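Re: [ENG-882] Designed sequences occasionally contain unexpected residues at chain ends

Forwarding the minimal case from QA. C-alpha cells:
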C-alpha cells in the first residue's frame, strides 16, 4: 500500500509497506528496524517473533524516551509476555503489539499528531 505523507520532510514517516518491506521516507527497509519521527531507521535485530529477547526490548530505551512503542510482529499479530515488556513498563512507556501493517498505519497517525512514538518492526 502506498501512503502519501503531508509532513515536514525531516519527519520520518512510513511512505509504503508490503510483503517483505517497509519504506520510511521513500527508503526501503527489508530487515527489522526501529525509527521515530526525528530518528531515521536503524537495524533492530529482532527478525522473527521466536527470536525476540529482552535485549531487543532494552534496545528501544534510548533518548529521548518515547511515549509509546509500537511493535510490529510481521504478517500476524503475536502477543508478548508482560515479563518481556517489563523494561518499558518500568519506564512508564506505553506499548502496543500488532501486525506490522497495522503498526505502520498507527505510527503515521501518532507521528502526525506530534506524539513521541517509536516503531519497532519485524519485516517478513
Amino acid at each position: 500500500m502506498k501512503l502519501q505523507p503531508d509532513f515536514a520532510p525531516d519527519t520520518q514517516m512510513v511512505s509504503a509497506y508490503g510483503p517483505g518491506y517497509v519504506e520510511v521516507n521513500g527508503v526501503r527497509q527489508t530487515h527489522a528496524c526501529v525509527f521515530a519521527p526525528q530518528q531515521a531507521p536503524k537495524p533492530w535485530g529482532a527478525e522473527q517473533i521466536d527470536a525476540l529477547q529482552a535485549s531487543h526490548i532494552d534496545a528501544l530505551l534510548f533518548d529521548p524516551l518515547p511515549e509509546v512503542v509500537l511493535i510490529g510482529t510481521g504478517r500476524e499479530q503475536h502477543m508478548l509476555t508482560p515479563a518481556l515488556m517489563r523494561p518499558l513498563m518500568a519506564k512508564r512507556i506505553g506499548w502496543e503489539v500488532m501486525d506490522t501493517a497495522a503498526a505502520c498505519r498507527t505510527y503515521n497517525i501518532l507521528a502526525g499528531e506530534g506524539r513521541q512514538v517509536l516503531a519497532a518492526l519485524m519485516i517478513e
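QA comment: On inspection the terminal residues look reasonable. The helical segments are 54-58, 82-90, 100-112. Proposing we downgrade this to a documentation issue.
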